[in-house]
Write a structure and sequence with these properties.
The protein is 11% helix and 63% strand. The chain is mainly beta. A hairpin with a 2-residue loop joins strand 2 (46-47) and strand 3 (50-54). The relative contact order is 0.20.
Amino acid sequence: MKAPVLALTAFALAFGAASSAHAADTSPWVLRVGVHTVDPKSNNGTLAGMKATIDSDTKPTFSLEYMIDSHWGVDVLAALPFKHTVHLNGVSAATTKHLPPTVGVNYHFVPEATVSPFVGVGLNYTRFFETRGIGPLQGTHVSIANSFGAAAHAGLDVRINDRWLATADVRWMSIAGDVKVNGSKVGKATIDPLAYGLSIGYRF
């Protein structure tokens, strides 16, 4: 029993020290609101023997980052639903919406500088919904399985003042889901997009 008690005590002391440091310094929370484009890679796999391509979409995004210390932060990304059209051999065949919540850890290289680059890694969960067949698949039941995979993050924070900042960033996400038409699997859609955009942040 001694080891768990000692571990919990050490964690409590470390958390208390971090909280005290933040209280004496700036707020540890950063809320960012912006807009991002989800741009799937160019080759999205083969579905029913046909080449699949998926177009891009742009939507508002929101992220909340908790700064553990001046360099390390834990980041959560959310967005309004993105909508994409799936093309088979160049013909529009389905539309789908997705939500890509992502959790990650960022490292800020020079947090006190006016321009501060950062990199991060994390995990992404993508939920597909309202998938519908159009064109040659009109009237069929089309579905794309939800996806869970790795994510990477890089960007620049530009300090405006002690509270406000602007951020330019890009995220890569591993997204791939089995595609079914009328219950039968016809292949896997491999999306693996880049999500790039701009946002305004506020420390609170």
